[in-house]
Design a protein that fits this description.
The chain is 41% helix and 20% strand. The protein has 279 residues and is of the alpha/beta class. It has 2 domains: 5-130, Rossmann fold, CATH 3.40.50; 148-278, Response regulator (Rossmann fold), CATH 3.40.50.2300. Strand 1 (5-9), helix 1 (13-25) and strand 2 (29-33) form a beta-alpha-beta unit.
Amino acid sequence: MTKRHVLVAEDEAHARLSLSVILRKADYRVTTVESGVQALDAIVNALGTEQAVDLLVTDLQMDGLTGPELIEALTQREIKLPMLVLTGYGDRDTMEALKANGCFTCVEKPLEPGDVLKSIDEAFADWAKREDPGQQAIGNKRLSVAPTKVLVVDDDEAIVRLIVKALSRVPMNFKVDGTTSAFEALMRIGKEGPGLVCLDVNMPGLDGREVLRAIRNDTVGGAMKVLVVSGYPDDGEDMRRLGADDVLLKPFTVTELTKRVGRLLSGATGDRFEEKNLN
């Protein structure tokens, strides 16, 4: 029988080591990471593979992406798996909010091996009861989660290629495509419903302002995220007033691009990517 795979996200080295020893002795396959960003990357990258994560154990407070933010990011991506939160000072409201997002329970620090293993056993048992067969990520079953669609719209083909290439390398579950035509963008937005549109402002024929108005008027899109990309600082205020979620000025770096996109879609950042200029 394939060992169940437990991912531990904990920023304290001694706690990571303790959990790793406890879980391996109980015959679990264990991966440890020190941040919520690394945990999100690991879970997304393993989807549909033999390395898929069966259960997440996460600390409550971590730099970059906290435990609650990690759970929220997974929920937004419709990634379902049993989760436990480690805490030494969680309040009742926080615990209830975590449980509403799919967290099974919270394990108090300092950690006791018996309490950890009992909570994990109960989490797996509870998960098996409330998840449909084929929907759960337990044992040999693996999740199949549709990627978040990202559409890049810019009349400069070189910019489209650069952004598509940069986002395609992000270790998150994205499906990235682009177009140099605002008219084509409107048709694709209505048909495909991307989760994020990276939108240039000044384009011939139909400009970014008109595309954004159409999206926010719900005639083609709906409540999708819009990241405006512009070479003119004055465009920022206008586009935010029209409903843009964020504005990124040209020239920008891959690091800044991935940070903004990650923040809009899941709260994650792209800090670990090499910084390069996009002109």
